[in-house]
Amino acid sequence: MKKILFCGTTNLDYFIYSKSLPTEGVTIKGHFEQNAGGKGANQAVACSKLGNKPFFYTRLSNDMAGKYLYSSLLSSGVKKNAIKIVKNNKSGVALIFVDENARNLIGIAPGVNEKMPKLEINKALKFLKKNDIVVCEMGIPIVSIKGILKQSKNKKIITIFNPAPVTGKLLKKDYERIDFITPNEHEAFELTNIKIKNKKNAKKAANKLRNLGCKNVIITLGENGAYAIFDNNEIYINAPKVRAIDTTGAGDAFNGAFAFGLSKGLSAKDALKLSIFVGSLSTTKKGCQPAMPTLNDLIRSKLIKKNEFSKLF
Fold first, then answer.
1. What is the pTM of this model?
2. Which of 11, 50, 80, 86 is least enclosed by beta carbons within 10 angstroms?
3. Is residue 95 part of a domain?
4. C-alpha to C-alpha distance for 122 and 125, rounded to whole angstroms
């Protein structure tokens, strides 16, 4: 099994579940919950709960939020070796509203997530060797993303880049260092200026990203599944029908599962199929990390069978 390093944000999530989303000048009433979150952390926990205990490079402070988040990561099976504690600072927090249709509004105060020094990145990458896997998301500084991609390719590490949320621009040389890019339809639009309303549009956007240098492209389409181009082969996979109550961490579940699938030796197509199931099942529970399913959860849900993904068991 390949080793995996996730690089990304960790936030303390404050959820309010209500009938509708807030609008300017209107106070709404709802139910409050607090959970560990952050895109990078969610992805790492999703991978860990499936069975590969990954390394995770992130930054936390030693404040109350940071201590809670650190403990939560370790209890989820994420390795502590690459976690950086920045004392006397603020850990990241997020405010999330979720309505009865599973739509959300999110605001983030990134805290120590805003800086990720080159020396820390290089130290974290030392835990990986050739053909291991690194995953990074776009909540971290753009200069850090470029550094991770550059150093990873120098070491011949497989790179998965989740451009969420889109916060800056990469150069062609950066795209050429990406083995798998995984935007959703909104992020793909921001990167390519192509609105995705059907598979034809998804193909155009995917090909534009490939022309920029990305080797393989996955565009996630929410409840409509995903469109991908792997080694010039087009793939479209539908998502299973589930009763979604909170879609907040579905993309993170997807990315964590895709890295997990590749680490276990699945083909890109089978890893994609697994990821869609994991992302879909995660929407049937509240929160992000608490909603990340295990392989047994997937079997109990009847979304997968052991003989369908025998390499995972």
1. 0.94
2. 80
3. no
4. 5
